[in-house]
Design goal:
With about 675 residues, the chain is mainly α. The protein has 27 helices and nine strands.
């Protein structure tokens, strides 16, 4: 006889557990339970039948896997949270009784938990951690700009700002940045780091505030996890490049608003640092430099700068090459399973480095260019973007310290300015009043190119240096399109085809060009006087017979290819002008109509077959899949309608512009 099944002991009722039961089982508060779930990556689950999972109760509640909650019972962080709860009770009791020595001792022994083991559990490999730093970078960049208050401490804001600056420093020195997009929400960046694409968003440098309806405790818990994650990832990235982590920070420059300029990359192989350069912590700041240290530094510098013999250099290079050959990955087949997938397609460090090297053509985009950033431009955005592509950037001292050159430097090639063009002041006679300037300054200004900030971003997304004419000061900028290509098939204001060319004339599509050409021909023909008509008739009589035959053949070809009434009418006019016989033209016209009817029948038959297949596929779908499919199709139709509407509006605007331009040109 089989074992009797009791209610609530098997199936969904055993696999799932409610949040109230989980909190009771873990013996912790609801806030601690939320913190544990965020840190360990445990999220609510949706069972197939909520009534069965809740043992017959249909009340709305959150469900978790029972195995996840059992896994949380052995978590070291949970033990530390319980210790902290006991510590808070003891501390409040000691403060209430006035036992200050006991309270001080308790404060010194305050329990603190670490998240290192959680990072290792959630991310077994470094690539897994690298793929998951998108959200971490977004949150760290956000809290780096938030003002401190009772919930957000100043040390937290400072640490977030430092972490984001370390990431920017790595991207700049490895030339990993690929795309930039300016939006209302903020600035989107995309970088390729060790073959992985990392996309993150940074808020604009305005005063940020945390809204009252946002639960800051949840965000701070995520931030606590992300800070530890980024520390591990940055240490690995810097170590792979052979750099010291954390990068040395110049506190004096940071206090003056240097930003990225306060950090510097230091090679691990450097045995000595310049005196008084960078101080990392309070211990090194308080330590004085003795004469013995100075002599040791000088000795190390002299030994490191000794010339190396050519034979020794060749030997070292040969040893390095041999070492690289030894470390090269050799794919081998599986001994147990010969039919297993070939390991030669697996990514290696050499293949990733080679792929990064092939992409390096556009990473030197601004190499040799020096930019001067005006005070009104976003310095942090432009400095990061320009330096990531090999350029130099300088700024006004009022914006921040650390500019590599001043405004009067001769090497400045571009000035990024975002001010409206203002006409020079004029006197009573109407002539402009210009202040006296030095000739050298005038020559410098003439050599430089004055552009708006969008030019830098558009050059990065295009992968080439664009013309500065469209981005000059005071001009209406071209549309700034998203480089990520998430809206495939959506309306795109085509700059190259529907925009403005170098001469300022509108660039038209092929059909629009044909329209305008036909309109111009009709207008020109209508304006011809009788004498010119007679001259044209005389010229037609003089045309050689070979050219006439060519014209006849072209006219008959157009008649055979005619699709609609307008095309046939145009072909008839051309045939009449070429002297084609009417009966011959009618035969070509009938042939064209027969071909069009056959083509339409084939198209309609294909559409019918496609529609039938779609209906049969929909019949095989479940209700949920069918609803999702219909939603997708509805959104596609809406996008297509919107695209068509915008294209028609654009065509109408361009047509009116061309007419107005033509009327202005015809006026005496």
């Amino acid at each position: 006889m089989g074992r009797l099944k009791s209610k609530g002991k098997a199936g969904a009722a055993k696999a799932y557990i409610t949040r109230t039961a989980a909190v009771k089982k873990l013996q912790c508060s609801l806030a601690d339970f939320r913190r544990l779930c965020i840190l360990k990556g445990i999220y609510p689950r949706e069972p197939r039948s909520r009534k069965k999972a809740n043992k017959g109760n249909s009340a709305p509640t959150s469900f978790y896997y029972a195995k996840d909650i059992a896994y949380l019972q052995h978590e070291p962080v949970l033990r530390k949270l319980r210790e902290h709860k006991a510590f808070a009770k003891k501390l409040s009791r000691a403060l209430g009784r006035g036992e200050w020595s006991i309270a001080k001792g308790l404060e010194e022994r305050k329990p603190v938990y670490k998240l290192d083991h959680i990072i290792k559990e959630r991310y077994p490999t470094f690539i897994d951690a690298l793929r998951d730093i998108d959200d971490a970078l977004c949150l760290v960049a956000l809290f780096g700009t938030v003002p401190s208050n009772e919930r957000v401490s100043p040390s937290l804001v400072e640490n977030c700002s430092r972490l984001y600056n370390e990431w920017q420093l790595y991207v700049i020195n490895t030339r990993s940045l690929r795309k930039v997009f300016l939006s209302i929400k903020g600035i989107y960046y995309q970088a390729v780091v060790q073959g992985e694409t990392v996309t993150w968003i940074v808020p604009w440098m305005f005063t940020q505030t945390i809204p009252a309806d946002v639960d800051a405790r949840v965000m701070l818990t995520f931030l606590e996890l992300y800070q530890t994650l980024l520390g591990f990832v940055f240490f690995k990235l810097y170590s792979d490049e052979g750099w010291v982590y954390p990068p040395p920070l110049d506190s004096s420059k940071e206090e003056k608003g240097a930003g990225l300029g306060a950090l510097s990359v230091v090679d691990k192989n450097m045995t000595a640092k310049p005196i008084g350069s960078i101080q990392q912590d309070s211990d090194t700041q308080s330590r004085t430099v003795s004469g013995k240290d100075v002599r040791k530094i000088i000795k190390d510098i002299s030994s490191s700068t000794e010339p190396i013999a050519s034979g020794q250099r060749d030997t070292e290079m040969a040893a390095d090459i041999a070492e690289d050959i030894e470390e090269e990955f050799v794919p081998q087949t599986s001994k147990t399973d010969p039919t297993a997938a070939n390991t030669s397609s697996l990514p290696t460090y050499q293949s990733i480095s080679a792929a990064a090297g092939t992409m390096g053509g556009s990473t030197k985009l601004f190499e040799g260019l020096s930019f001067w950033l005006s005070r009104e431009t976003p310095r942090h955005l432009l400095e990061f973007a320009i330096r990531s592509f090999g350029g130099k950037a300088g700024w006004d001292p009022t914006v921040g310290d650390g500019s590599p050159y001043d405004e009067h430097w001769d090497g400045i090639t571009h000035v990024i300015i975002d001010r409206p063009a203002v006409a020079p002041p004029q006197n009573d006679q109407g002539s402009s009043i210009q202040p006296a300037r030095i000739e050298e300054d005038d020559l410098k200004r003439r050599k430089r190119k004055y552009i708006q900030p969008q030019w830098v971003v558009d050059c990065i997304n295009a992968g080439r240096i664009l013309s500065e004419d469209k981005y000059e000061r005071g001009r209406v900028l071209p549309p700034h399109l998203s480089p990520f290509g998430e809206d495939q098939g959506a309306y795109q204001p085509d700059v190259e085809e529907g925009g403005v060319d170098g001469n300022g004339d509108a660039i038209m599509k092929g059909s629009e060009k044909e329209e305008t050409e036909s309109e111009e021909e009709v207008i020109e023909g209508a304006d011809l006087p009788d004498e010119e008509d007679e001259e044209s008739e005389v010229e037609q009589d003089v045309i050689p017979p070979t050219l006439k035959s060519d014209k006849k053949e072209k006219a008959l070809k157009k008649a055979r290819k005619g699709v609609d009434a307008e095309a046939l009418r145009a072909a008839e006019l051309e045939a009449e002008a070429a002297g084609v016989d009417y009966m011959e033209f009618e035969r070509a016209k009938k042939q064209a109509t027969k071909q069009n009817k056959g083509a339409k029948a084939v198209v309609s038959q294909e559409e019918t077959i496609r529609a039938t297949e779609q209906d049969m596929n929909k019949m095989m779908m479940s209700n949920r899949q069918r609803k999702l499919y219909e939603k997708m199709k509805y959104s596609e139709r809406k996008k297509t309608e919107e695209k068509t509407k915008l294209e028609q509006r654009k065509a109408a605007i361009q047509k009116t512009k061309r007419r107005e331009a033509k009327q202005l040109s015809n006026k005496p």
